[in-house]
Amino acid sequence: MAKTSLPLAASFLLLISFSSAADTGRLFLTVVNNCPFTVWPAIQPNAGHPVLEKGGFALPTFTHRSFSAPTTHWSGRIWARTGCAHYNGKFSCITGDCGNRLECNGLGGATPASLAQFDLHHGGHKDFSSYGVSLVDGYNVPMTVTPHEGHGVCPVVGCREDLLKTCPGHLQVRSHAGHVVACKSGCEAFHSDELCCQGHYNSPNTCKASSHSLFFKHACPSTFTFAHDSPSLMHDCSSPRELKVIFCH
């Protein structure tokens, strides 16, 4: 999503354990649009992993789309693009744009945008998957990830709040019409090593929360809000058959 790739560290993500591939069958990813407007979901695999669903598609309001996750290890991210349109023969989106393409085909997207991150493992006697919602790159729509048919403690994680209504003025992104369409991270707003956790600040000991990341954390405590953040919900969940990404949950 952002130009710099954020690691999907297992210690940062919600761990899901699977008893065996035979017991669970196929794992499905489902993307749901509960927003009162069309969104254009985008999917970007991490390096070395296949593109799913050509990397992007339109999803009208109150519809969903399900697809099988790979049966081998896969990691990547899903986000919503908003305000997309064809104009003078070119497709573009107000938020989350991936190089003026409907089908992102592996490309990342423009920040700020809310991200669902996945690290899915299959094979062997024990299979593990992880999921989380990141606001490290900012926010554009409410987003949650919900596991289904899992056992144990299986919390919904993410951000249900409409942060466009409360985004501080210095973090706001506005459309040409003057509407707030996204909320920047402190890193994107000010480009400092400290806020971006770069250079000397690129370690758990030196990368700390800021007033900007705390705006997101206070509203949505189960999300990642800076590079070395730890969300509030980190529970084991076994054998979900589906991971559902819900926009405007």
Automatic annotation (TrEMBL):
Spell out the coiled coil positions from the record: none
Q: Which UniProt keywords apply?
A: Signal
UniProt-recorded name of the protein: Osmotin-like protein
Q: Where is the signal peptide?
A: 1-21
Fetch the CDD domains from UniProt.
TLP-PA
The record's Pfam families line, in alphabetical order, gives: Thaumatin
Keyword Signal found: yes
